[in-house]
Write a structure and sequence with these properties.
Largest sheet: 11 strands, mixed
Shape: globular
Number of strands: 26
Radius of gyration: 32 Å
């Protein structure tokens, strides 16, 4: 008897349509089989019950479950012998098991065991979002939700790979076809059905997974640096008077423009406090002094932190809490005071600074209050990013941190709006999980958790090109969350407005040329003018040799019809990170790009020399135009250099693993934009990479 319930072993991909209602499942199974010209199994239980009905045996009893199960298994095995590539089963033993338990509160042990043993590459759980239709075996229209929950819980408890199909029949068919095609690809890549469901639910396309695995295998070519971009060789240098003229142009134009400020702010502050965490992990106050630790570890950052401790904007609130918690705090030795201060600053049950987003930390001490980066960005936005007394500020955040952002915004927004006479609109977005990458080991095999789950990691700030792409604005200012200043807001605003004025000038000229092309009014003389403009203003040279007039016009249109970025560049003072360079791509085209050190081949002496001769640094100070001459949004994803991502190595426990990061937001993600680099003063660049940066003059009261 048990042999009659054995599922045939085969390499055919088997799909089970699973759910409490038969209508729709049979139709979908037939449609899928027809689409793939392969086999399917009819609703045997339904046929069996119909036969009983015709014999006037109107009541199905528990004893009917085993004949149904035998019939199902035989029919499925018969069809497996005929199937070419796929088999679609609109019923299976698991369905019969569930109904047996629901209706009779009992399931024959043979049926139960066989239902658990039967394997399908994927279960399609059919949703109940379509109208209920009466038939001979469905009699519970008011219990659809509870019955559906039983079916779903059964799949979860038995750890069967499943995906829910919702929508009308047309949508379900389209979704099922896409899923099946992706499952085939996943199987070819060596993934299990459980892996497939995990990847599917994460939202990553399987083509992307395939591309990522190829990247891990083949590596990523390093950037080919030709020379550093310098003043008069790729970097525009303006006087303060010039900036004032450009800023005036922006102020005169902005009433007709929708402005937005875009602030990447999803990261936690863990790196800011890394050296303090290391200290707490390594130091034993009962065995050595802090000074001995500093000397032993040559830990100058810790020394600076302790020396400047009372100058941090959060000093007083931590000191006050210490005196509340430790009644004898004032009588403790200096070492114990400093140790407890650091410990409380990072303790999860107290201030927990290292696990909070940078945006909400105390950065600046004013006479009346302490300000965090969120407040400073709202303040800045009202100064240079407002039009018609409205400013729009967009933060990219981690979903778990958004409530903290909202609390900080609510605390200061009304006051800042009243002071500036500007309404400040705040919006948020998250980095899309579909931009994550799979994690592999050094042999390029997927890494798993102890439970066997695949591990994914975020795709880096390059993933934010999708967030940027979703914004609707004529001019978008981009600035990092930690690049704020306590003083000199007027100077900061001048240079931001100046960059925006340069963008407006460029757009006016470019849009004029493109409209002439569209209206077929461009002449041979005008082409010469455009070529000169491209060379002098956009650092672009187009090879027009042996081209017809029509081809020249096409080349010009292709070159000009792109999003534009104007990037402030500061003098290089040893900060880590990217800078402006002339770069040659694989096709021999030379262009201006922002290049990170990790993109450079550090085994090549020539490339190292070019890197060392860089005069300027990228402070992430961008003003962007993301609409074309018809006032239509560009699809920014079309201008990404997909070959310029990063392979990064991380540690998981004692193992080294690899992840893939997308082309950086201001690196490869904007590689095919029109680019202008402009020298701006160092005062515009005041990042807080470590907590000790808050001791610098730009972050101290004046």
């Amino acid at each position: 008897m048990e042999e009659n319930l054995k599922q045939q072993d085969t390499r055919i991909l088997k799909f089970a349509l699973f759910g409490p209602e038969s209508t729709g499942k049979t139709t979908l199974a037939k449609q899928l089989a027809s689409y793939y010209e392969t086999e399917w199994v009819p609703e045997f239980a339904r046929d069996y019950l119909q036969e009983k009905w015709e014999e006037n045996q109107h009541i199905c009893v528990e004893e009917d479950m085993m004949p149904i199960a035998y019939g199902q298994t035989k029919l499925e095995n018969d069809k497996l012998a005929l199937a070419n590539k796929f088999l679609f089963c609109d019923t299976n033993l698991m369905v019969t098991k569930v109904f047996s338990e629901m209706y009779y509160d009992y399931c024959n042990p043979l049926l139960n065991e066989a239902a658990l043993e039967h394997e399908y590459d994927l279960f399609f759980l059919t949703d109940i979002d379509v109208p209920w239709e009466k038939d001979d075996i469905r009699d519970s229209p008011k219990e659809r939700e509870s019955v559906f929950s039983v079916f779903k819980e059964t799949l979860i408890e038995t750890k069967k790979p499943y995906i829910t199909l919702s929508g009308n029949k047309k949508l379900r068919l389209a979704k099922a076809v896409e899923i099946i095609n992706n499952l085939v690809l996943a199987k070819e890549l060596g993934f299990s059905s459980a892996d497939f469901v995990q990847i599917y639910e994460h939202g990553i396309s399987f083509e992307k997974i395939k591309e990522q695995l190829q990247i891990f295998k083949n590596g990523i070519n390093k950037s080919n640096l030709i020379s550093p971009a310098t003043v008069s060789n790729g970097i525009l240098s303006l006087s303060e008077a010039d900036f004032e003229v450009k800023a005036t142009l922006f102020d005169a134009s902005k009433s007709k423009l929708k402005l937005k400020k875009f602030v990447p702010a999803s990261g936690a502050a863990s790196r800011m406090f890394k050296f303090l965490n290391t200290f707490l992990n390594d130091f034993n106050i009962e065995k050595e002094s802090i000074n001995a630790y500093i000397n032993r570890k040559k830990e100058s950052q810790l020394s600076l932190f302790i020396i400047g401790m009372d100058k941090f904007p959060f000093f007083e609130i931590v000191d006050k809490k210490l005196k509340e918690v430790y009644s004898d705090f004032d009588s403790l030795s200096v070492d114990y005071k400093n140790y407890y201060f650091i410990k409380m600053l990072l303790a999860s049950d107290y201030f927990d600074f290292a696990n909070k987003p940078k945006a909400v930390l105390q950065f600046h001490q004013y006479k009346t209050h302490i300000a965090n980066p969120i407040e400073e960005h709202l303040h800045e936005c009202a100064h240079y990013g407002s039009s018609n007394s409205v400013s729009n500020l967009h933060f990219t955040v981690s979903e778990i941190h958004q409530s903290q952002f909202e609390e900080c915004v609510d605390a200061v927004k009304e006051k800042l709006e009243e002071e500036s006479g500007t309404k400040i609109n705040i919006s948020y977005s998250y980095q899309n999980k579909s931009t994550d990458s799979i994690t592999v080991n050094l042999d390029n095999k997927p890494v798993r958790t102890e439970e066997g789950k695949l591990i994914f990691r975020p795709g880096g700030h390059g993933a934010l090109i999708e967030n940027l792409n979703n914004l609707d604005a004529d001019i978008i200012f981009i600035k990092n969350i930690d690049n704020v200043i306590q003083n000199h807001i007027e100077e900061i605003s001048l240079y931001k407005k100046g960059l925006a004025g340069i963008l407006i000038e460029l757009q006016n000229k470019i849009f004029g040329y493109l409209k002439e092309i569209e209206n077929q009014k461009i002449t041979a003389d005008k082409i010469v003018e455009v070529m000169q403009f491209l060379k002098e203003n956009l650092n672009l040279e187009i090879d027009f040799e042996d081209l017809t007039l029509e081809s020249k016009i096409d080349k010009i249109k292709e070159a000009l019809d792109r999003p534009i970025r104007v990037c402030g560049m500061v003098k290089n003072e040893g900060e880590p990170g990217g800078g402006p360079f002339w770069v040659q791509d694989e096709e021999g085209v030379v262009s201006l790009q922002i290049v990170e050190t990790s993109q450079v081949d550090l085994t090549d002496k020539n490339q190292i020399a070019i890197l060392a001769n860089a005069t300027h640094f990228n402070p992430v100070d961008l003003v962007c135009g993301t609409k074309n001459y018809k006032n239509e949004k560009f699809d920014l994803k079309q201008f990404v250099n997909k070959k310029s991502g990063f392979i990064v190595e991380k540690s998981i426990g004692t193992n080294t693993v690899k992840g893939y990061e997308l082309p950086g937001l201001w690196n490869g993600a904007m590689a095919n934009w029109l680019t202008v680099f402009v020298a701006v003063p160092i005062i515009t660049f005041n990042p807080v990479k470590t907590v000790n940066d808050l001791l610098k003059p730009a972050h101290q009261p004046q």
